[in-house]
Amino acid sequence: MLSFPASVLHFPSWAFRSTVCRSVSLAYFATLFGLWRLGLLIMLGRGFPPAFPESRALFVTTLLTVPTWAFCMCIGYLCWMFELSLGNCFTRWRNPHGNYTELVFNQDEEIERCEEHPSPRAGAHKTASRRQRPVAFIALWSGYFSLVILGVYLLVTYELPVDHHYKADVQLANRVPKRDGYASKEKIFLAAMFYNNARVVPYWTVEITKLINYLGSDNVFVSIVESYSTDATPALLLEFDRKLEAMGVPRRILTQETSIPRPASSTGTQLPHIEYLANLRNLAMEPLATQGAYDRVLFSNDVFVEAESIVELLNTKGGDYDMACGLDFHNRGLYDLWVLRDRLGHLASALWPYFLEDTGFRAVMTNEPAPVFACWNGIIAVRADPFLPIPLRKGQLSTIPLTHPLPSTHPAYPRPLNTTPASTSPVRFRASKPGECFSSESFLLPYDLRRQFAMKNIYANPRVITAYEWRFYVWFKYILRHWAVKWFIERVENGNGIHLAKFVLGNPAEIWQWDGSECHPAPVRGPNPRSLTN
């Protein structure tokens, strides 16, 4: 049996090994940080930071990196300990008589080179060193393990209670469905449109099924229009149709609909496309005029949204609203900024707290619905009476004549005297008319509801998150709504001061409001501003 002297079986000292471990640990942290950063960049789109501002993305990357790094370091230290222990056992087996210096776990260079009969002082130093090193190892490993536990805690507590008021109720409704549902007895007309949405429809139909079980199949009508799709969208919607039939849900689902010509070459911001979308939305709303008896319209775009978020939308302000919207997102923040206007009629910001006027941004800062002039943002809930023929209405509209005349550019101008919202003809989605500020059909709906039906209680609910792509939905619904990230956004970023860059003289709640008659609201001068509204 071969044996080797201590000079041959020599390993680096404990101090040297610790230095190497620290260097490897830092390098490993930097590598993991870079990988998470690259992953977010790929997830949310090349060419842009994962989200603005950059500090937010760095904070999220750090939260993802630290627990991952700590877990890997825990495993690495355990493997190192196991390997050195095996080395010690092997050395004792190869050197049973003690003629050569034995390699002991956590030996330093001085002890490895000590003599066969060391002095009492050297022996005391060796004993103390051996006692301290396991303690240091355990303390370091415990620190890494604590970071792992923190990561697990962050993972299991990602849901904010304020975002999931109705999650337990929706889950109960889907375990034990009832035809009359678990909600209030409001009748909901659910409308939607789809085009080449095979990636969205499976998720959307699952969540809508959960919603219907919560509302009750007797309380919902589903109207869907799909047109000109070239993917599996029609087949998926037909499968959903069969499922609704089995549930006993009244419905009208039109697939491969071509009665409305699709513009040959247009984008979402051109007039032909706006007219086309308005006609499709009116087609989806057709059954409401014949069915009647519905309290609210729930109109969904082709978005990712959870059932409990839709319930949250329907219960905005305890149900005391005329129209409520969610918020839709893409990689740079709020998406549909063409439609969204704050309470004063101004454009919104893509970044939290989104609104630049006092009432709106303070509402968002406290997770409360913000009063707005107009919105859509992926999904809306609105009172049904304005869409219904006058004899079928349920008394949701005022019988008092309007005090503010319509602008001369409005297609309903001139309005007969003493016309009331209750006696006004049904509203329809439309495109801008000559002389009007060019807007989308989604903006013109709340505009007409305000001007023709005196429906001014319109809110954007920041707890209702939607997105047109799954990666953006995950980012804004699950990551940026995480309590730790939300704390960073609200307490550290705090809007980056953008919402404070203004000067208000007097009571902010009494600032004039835009009535929509001008493309871009200008400051009001004089005692009788024409664009003043209540």
UniProtKB/TrEMBL annotation:
Ranges annotated as spanning the membrane: 26-45, 57-82, 135-156
Keywords: Glycosyltransferase, Membrane, Transferase, Transmembrane, Transmembrane helix
InterPro entries for the chain: Mannosyltransferase_CMT1
Pfam families per record: CAP59_mtransfer
Flavoprotein among keywords: no
Single GO MF descriptor: glycosyltransferase activity
Name this protein carries in UniProt: Cryptococcal mannosyltransferase 1-domain-containing protein
Organism: Mycena albidolilacea
